[in-house]
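Student: Send me a single protein entry containing the residue sequence and its fold in token form, directly below this note:

Tutor:
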Amino acid sequence: GYYYYLMIGPAPTMTPYGPLHAADLFYVFGNFLSSGIVPTPVGLDLSSKIQQAWGSFAHTGVPSWEGGWPSMAGETPEFLEIALFPDVETNFRRGRCIALRNLGVLP
């Protein structure tokens, strides 16, 4: 299977439209300071959890996460929403296409 996640909340590189593409990589590699970003204690904790999940995925093919990280397979694909209180969600398009239409990106 394959795994999908969505990070919710402020990122180290925010724009008026949300975080920049690949803003989650600071959490994956923990390289905040080398980029001039001072992480919060919450950011450091989240980075540790994400590094553990990615390490597990590299080792076993399944990311580890407290509470589980479901595969996107099946009739109702599920994904992990990474936020202050992470949760498993099923509607991964939830409003995103509407936002892109409003920005003129989609017809």
Remarks:
- The chain has a mean pLDDT of 84.
